[in-house]
């Protein structure tokens, strides 16, 4: 039996942390192999890590729509090490095809929970 690691997603829409089980959401386990899931199960996709002062967009696969989403923050730190950043955007794309996130100065990575249309 394979060990499955859980991943945390920050969910702005829920206002809290959402623990997503990789086997249920189609996330790869620590070996990088994708878990077999039913076709109608939700799927988590990630966008690229943004550049400084840029947005990250997680796009849902064709035939799916965004159900929820969130981001992982890689905040900007000043020269004395204090965190000096905040989230400007953490929301679904207007057409429902994914999730977007942007920070004032740091790097961010968007995640989208997608489900069949």
UniProtKB/TrEMBL annotation:
The UniProt keyword set, sorted, is: Signal
Q: Which residues form the signal peptide?
A: 1-35
Protein name (database record): Secreted protein
Organism, as annotated? Streptomyces palmae
